[in-house]
Design brief:
It contains 13 helices and 12 strands. By secondary structure, it is α/β, with parallel strands linked by helices. A 7-stranded mixed β-sheet has the order 1-7-6-5-4-2-3, sandwiched between helices. Strands 8-9-12-11-10 form a 5-stranded mixed β-sheet, covered by helices on one side.
Amino acid sequence: MTPVYLTSTYVQTKVGEHKGYEYSRTQNPTRHALENAFAELEGAKHGMAFASGLAAMDNLLKTLKPGDEVISTNDLYGGSYRLFNSVFANYGIKFHFINLDEPNTSLEDVVNENTKMIWIETPTNPMMKITDVQAVVNFVKGKDILVCVDNTFATPMLQQPLSQGADVVMHSATKYLGGHSDVVMGALITAKKELADEFYRIQNSSGAIAGPMDCFLVLRGIKTLHLRMEKHCENGEIVARFLESHPKVDKVYWPGLKSHANHDIAKEQMRGFGGMISFTLKGNNLEDALNFVQNVKLFALAESLGGVESLIGHPATMTHAAIPKETREKSGVVDSLIRLSVGVEDIDDLLKDLKQAL
């Protein structure tokens, strides 16, 4: 087991000479081991561990300057939207939120000389939309634009965006990489040394690092990532098909269903479709949705996702409450939308719970 180095400062051999570590904001052996693991998982050379997923995004956005523009999906995790609009927009950075289902069409009207970054979630949170990463990479080829992918929902087990030409991958390691709902952490991963050097510089300057005990927990979680993701995918498919056939369910959003708008792209760029599912109830009644999430017994009503236990959430009032109602509903986050993080429990128990709540 990797030791937990609860060390803030390190003895130096003489002035200006150390044994590889001098101060744990800059580098820590436990964190170093995890950062190498992050890089290896995504087929890259450089990984960085941060205090949270948003801290990782914050680090990335600090590479931008006033006047720069960022293009992102209009179906975006509420915390990312809040970071963009209520923090970095105040520093002269402009954000565009568009439909990235068909990037060649939608990017044409928005990309300009000030565009410096395209921020992709795929699958998105909570509508499970799929963006063709390769198509975005091809569109910006030859331009000074970073393609960055939030790979939290898929994990490196299901897709590796760097292999499709993306510049940077971000993970909320709080979710599937940790996998046990006991740690909060973020990761940035890149194959490009000049980008990595800048990320390390900002990380050291800003200080939002992951602590050694948290790094130990995520290293432990990664050991079973492949096993957990197999079960998440297996259970997720059964739950998605059950919901699709239920008379009280209106629409089911899961990339593995043929009814999914970008199912073919998902099939091409993913090795599995994961355990994240969203669905709406017939009638789109808020009270029905709230009663449903209150009446499940095994699915725990809670924020977050990606742990071994199944979770349920109501995006409009929980994860996406920071997004204005009109904007939220345009992207599909309506009153009856319910999001499931399907865990690794026995599938019969999960189906029994959903049946009784419906």
